[in-house]
Amino acid sequence: MTATETLDAVSRPRPAAPPEAPLDQPPPERLPWGGLLALAVAGFITVLTEALPAGLLPRIGAGLSISEAMAGQMVTVYAIGSLVAAIPLTAATRGWRRRPLLLTAIAGFAVVNTVTAVSTSFALTLGARFLAGVFAGLLWALVAGYAARMAPEHLKGRAIAVAMIGTPIALSLGVPAGAFLGAAVGWRYAFGLMSVLTVILIGWTLWRVPDFPGQAADRRLPLAGVFAMPGVRPVLAGTLTYVLAHNILYTYVAPFVVPAGLGGQVDRVLFVFGAAALAGVWIVGALIARRLREMTLVSIAAFGAVAVALGLWGASPLAVYVAVAVWGVTYGGAPTLFQTASAQAAGEAADVAQSMIVTAWNIAIAGGGLFGGMLLDKVGAASLPWALLGLLAVALVVVWRARRAGFPAA
């Protein structure tokens, strides 16, 4: 090469290097684990905030000079807050950028749990618990859609499964640990520790969770339009009947296991359920990308088999433990299945559809306590599995018929 050629080669414009991928976007073939685990911790805190008072009612009642029944209303007002706020609040914030909205919901837990930890007024505590439910309704409406947007197309279902894993962990490990902590050092410290964990999560979210724009005003469907989208109503109906069946038994599992001689082992029964639920999350996460419809049908059918087994052999300790393990596996993946189906059916309106799922879920929680209590008082604990079977039959038919939209074939 001559000197002239060398100079020409040096001075000749070179093609521009391809732009680097934005730092807030996931690699095309990988899950953004840091961000997804932050969402999972947010779910963990949400469930723990909801369920922790149930294990500390005597101590909370003594600390606030109220009865245990009154202390139990801390759980009730939390559910009411989620029920009334999820849909309107999510609809009103569709235009907000996603990370500031997510951080608002997370920061809300730090505030309300701190108030709960220091309050000496039952009225103030109830107000904080209601606001906790409001923040929970908003957060649950965001999580599934957020996880899906963070992941590549073929891993969206698995991303939602990772984001949902905080729920079974909180139920199986977090609630017993919180109850133990409350007994050891006081219930106020348990709520205070959750506030500290929430502050850490805020920093984690800022570090690892990307931001996304809200939905443009000209692309926002009205609530009725979202509800009328093909597939949304079957998903809501399937969610309501399945979760109602679950809560009828879960709420009254303590009296149900007494005939099997397990009245003093309720904590072990629930631990088996929670541990099995973790396995259910893993199984669904591995298969959901290709088998959403099949997994949902199998989950409902297996839960129905559990109901039959408990109805026929509920007096056998071995049968109860085996059935509870299968029940845990089926239920562990249920939030991922229904929320993934909802997100796929609603598309850009996923957050609003998720808020409807949150509302249906909380109606099912309240309905489980109401209808299960009526059955327990009027007929007895042995009637619970057969009530489950009827509801699960409805859920199975709804999902089976939603072949084209809602739970489409792969």
Reported by name, the CATH topology of the largest domain is Growth Hormone, Chain: A
- Count the domains: 2
Shape: globular
In DSSP terms, counting alpha (H) and pi (I) runs of 4 or more, how many helices? 18
Q: Which range best describes the helical content: under 10%, 10-25%, 25-40%, 40-55%, 55-70% or over 70%?
A: over 70%
Structural class: mainly alpha
CATH architecture of the largest domain: Up-down Bundle
Structure description:
By secondary structure, the protein is mostly helical. The protein has two domains: 31-218, Growth Hormone, Chain: A (Up-down Bundle); 221-410, MFS general substrate transporter like domains (Growth Hormone, Chain: A), CATH 1.20.1250. Helix content is 77%, strand content 0%. The protein has 18 helices and no strands. It has helices at 3-11, 33-51, 57-64, 68-71, 73-92, 98-118, 122-150, 156-164, 166-185, 187-208, 223-227, 232-251, 253-256, 266-313, 317-332, 334-346, 350-378, 384-401.
